[in-house]
Design a protein that fits this description.
By secondary structure, this protein is mainly α. 66% of the residues lie in helices and 4% in strands.
């Protein structure tokens, strides 16, 4: 991971940061009062710049710790797949439709792994992973990430209602549509 890689332009987010920051500042001020018996004030006998510098160094350590631990996350997986696919010409040397055909092939292989009882669980997991690799390639070609798509899907379903019918979840709107057709 390199700090030299520029981040993309931001898109519309989910939650405003400022109100959360204000709450954190107020809570932190209370901690300071409990610890020192007074709120932070000017001319208090301490070097504010040195206090800031020491806190900043601690913060930099925490940031680096987070970045190092994040290497085990889904984003890291996507980056590894992207690097692997680029090295093999799977992003610019093919089309999204070809990747879709590959996705269908992997989907069928997963179906086989789920249907055939003698296939070990590890093999089934590998088939799921193969699907994720192809989806990551498609996302790269589209200029998005699997994580972004997963969060979009979650936002779409998080408040969804429905019921189970014969082992399948049926969305409330589909239940209503079926009733209207009868």
């Amino acid at each position: 991971m390199s700090a030299n890689k520029p981040e993309p332009m931001p898109t519309k987010g989910k939650q405003a940061v400022l109100p959360e920051l204000i709450q954190d500042l107020q809570a932190r001020a209370e901690v300071g009062i409990q610890k020192y018996g007074t709120p932070l004030e000017t001319d208090n006998g301490r070097d504010a710049l040195m206090d800031f510098y020491q806190e900043y160094l601690d913060g930099a350590m925490y940031f680096k710790q987070h970045l190092m631990e994040r290497d085990g996350t889904f984003r890291h997986f996507e980056n590894k797949v992207r690097d692997w696919a680029n090295a093999r010409g799977l992003i610019y040397g093919t089309t999204i439709l070809k990747q879709y055909e590959k996705l269908h092939e992997e989907y069928v292989e997963l179906g086989d792994a789920l249907i055939i009882p003698s296939i070990p669980l590890r093999h089934t997991k590998l088939e799921i992973g193969d699907i994720l690799v192809v989806l990551a390639n498609i996302c790269t070609q589209l200029g998005c990430t699997l994580e972004e798509c997963a969060w979009l899907a979650y936002d779409k379903i998080k408040d969804r209602k429905g019921k189970m019918i014969n082992g399948t979840f049926v969305k409330e709107e589909d239940l209503c549509r079926n009733l209207d057709q009868k």
